[in-house]
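Narrative of accomplishments. A recurring question from our advisory board has been how the design workflow behaves on a single, concrete structure rather than in aggregate. To address it, we present the structure tokens for one chain from the evaluation set, followed by the sequence designed for it. No filtering or post-editing was applied between the two.
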């Protein structure tokens, strides 16, 4: 069910979609529903909006680069260590997302025009500065997080400790592999098999993690769902993950969607918008512009802002960038294929 785009299901009228009849949101961790809707007054934040886009996946900020504003990363506790074993990382190479520069520039400009915030309200990280270290340091201090970057997903052959196959083979044993003692354990924590990609993720990790002593404090450019879950994001109102396939996660045993949305909810973030599959870069930019105009300028709820964005895209295929192959639309209806608007889903607080 986690991979099913509910918005694209058939509606009441033949040829229509469910999004035209209903407002849709999901709750990945139902036990946290009371915490999602409770009043969290009193959370003091130093900043308002964090933007990350136009990420350089081939370069990390460091001493050899002119990135003086990035904070030093404190020593991490064992469960916060981020360097993935090479078997999980695989040979992923992440390509540049050219349209994300214009995407984050639009959001920053809109926010400034509407609210005239102070000089420290908006944090805008690009290129090598869009790092895992910067995200760790500043995300807990912001109300809104917009990450225009790739999602990471381990190869399907990497076993989840919750996989049906492993449980069938080994009875009820569900040993979880942290990545540090692979031979003794049955599978990886599902939260290690998906994550968010930051600057420098294409570079070879600088350290191996075959033992706890070798697990250094290096951020490797990939923040797993497990790592996200251990952050303190109680002050975060909305997280938007606008790029490729950031909603999906490798979850076994028929559980459905685990993914990054669940990690953010466990960390305390109220709402997350993410995509279930890869969408054209230019189309995503245009959809995000429409979403933020609905949410910030028209002051719609998050749920209504996303729904109105999807309905706009559905009914106005000519207003989307040429990167979208309009030939896939039904000519008799002149409606945009769900391939381009249906993957964006809201998780958590819908207000």
């Amino acid at each position: 069910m986690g991979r099913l785009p509910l918005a694209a299901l058939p509606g009441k009228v033949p040829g229509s979609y469910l999004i035209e009849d209903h407002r849709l949101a999901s709750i990945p961790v139902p036990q946290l529903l009371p915490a999602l809707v409770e009043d969290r007054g009193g959370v003091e934040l130093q900043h308002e909006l964090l933007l990350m886009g136009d990420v350089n996946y081939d370069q990390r900020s460091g001493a050899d680069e002119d990135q003086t504003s990035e904070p030093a990363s404190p020593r991490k506790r064992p469960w916060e260590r981020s360097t993935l074993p090479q078997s999980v990382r695989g040979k992923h190479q992440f390509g540049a997302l050219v349209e994300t520069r214009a995407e984050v520039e639009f959001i920053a400009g809109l926010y400034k025009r509407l609210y005239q915030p102070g000089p420290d309200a908006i944090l805008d990280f690009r290129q090598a500065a869009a790092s895992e270290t910067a995200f760790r340091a500043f995300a807990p201090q912001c109300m809104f997080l917009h990450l225009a970057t790739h999602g990471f997903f381990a190869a399907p052959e990497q076993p989840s400790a919750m996989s049906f196959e492993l449980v069938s083979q080994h009875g009820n044993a569900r040993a979880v592999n942290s990545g540090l003692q692979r031979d003794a354990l049955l599978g990886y924590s599902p939260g290690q098999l998906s994550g968010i990609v930051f600057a420098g993720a294409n570079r070879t990790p600088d350290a191996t993690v075959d033992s706890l002593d070798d697990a250094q404090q290096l951020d490797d450019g990939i923040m797993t769902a497990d790592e996200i879950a251990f952050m303190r994001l109680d002050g975060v109102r909305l997280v938007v993950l606008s790029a490729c396939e950031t909603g999906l996660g490798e979850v076994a045993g028929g559980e459905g969607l685990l993914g990054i949305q669940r990690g953010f909810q466990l960390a305390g973030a109220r709402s997350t918008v993410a995509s279930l599959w890869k969408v054209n870069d230019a189309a995503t930019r245009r959809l995000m512009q429409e979403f933020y105009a609905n949410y910030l300028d028209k002051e719609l709820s998050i749920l209504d802002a996303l729904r109105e964005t999807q309905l706009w895209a559905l009914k106005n295929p000519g207003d989307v960038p040429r990167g979208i192959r309009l030939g896939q639309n039904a000519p008799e209806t002149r409606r945009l294929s769900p391939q381009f608007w249906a993957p964006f889903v809201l998780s958590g607080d819908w207000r």
